[in-house]
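JOB MANIFEST
job_type = single_chain_structure
chain_count = 1
residues = 231
[input]
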Amino acid sequence: MEQQDNYSAQQVHRNSSSCEGVGKPIIVCVGRQLGSGGHDIARMLAMDFNAKYYDRELLNLAAKESGFSEKFFEQNDEKKGFIKGLFNLGSPHVNSGSVYNSSISQESLFKFQSDAILKAADEGSCVFVGRCADYVLRERKNVVSIFITASMEFRIQQVMVKQQIDHAAAHKFIEQRENKRAAFYNYYTGKKWGAAESYDLCIDASILGLQATESLIADFIRKRFAVVHSS
């Protein structure tokens, strides 16, 4: 059994960085396998580069942009074709007076979320977790895309602890969730989720552990954008 990394974002303090090479904020897009530690690594990167961290926070931003409730986005997070059941859910999922009540399309919710990503990226350095952010921001020069993977056993152990389930259930949980995540990414980006050619850097976090993996990624980003530390 591989040892779990008990990293806590609040325990790490680093210098802030400026993106001297591109003269713009640094945008980091993190894709991740379930149980790989991608969320913790993304939080560390946000601290390293003095950037805002966006994961489920994007759902709130998208809800504000669209007029739909945040609960609706949460229930359909990273699911391909999730608009199909909208009209069976009833009015509580839509704010009163929404202009989208009668004109919603298959891709509308993805567009709302994409608009929220673009808006957040305009406001400064940030780290996005999932939700096709790398594709949404593909035209920008100050974006780096990372994919975090890990061995299956490492991931199963992480999920067992977090979900409080046994080994077999954790394995099934990972497979079911990842199939949906991959379908969502592949459908909206035209790329293959988890494939090396879809990202700037892919790395196995179970080899070095989360903190060392984050340090390696941070060094890659600094070299990529000629980032200079400022204390």
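[summary]
Residues 23-230 form a domain with the Rossmann fold fold (CATH 3.40.50.300).
The chain is about 45% helix and 15% strand.
exit_status = 0
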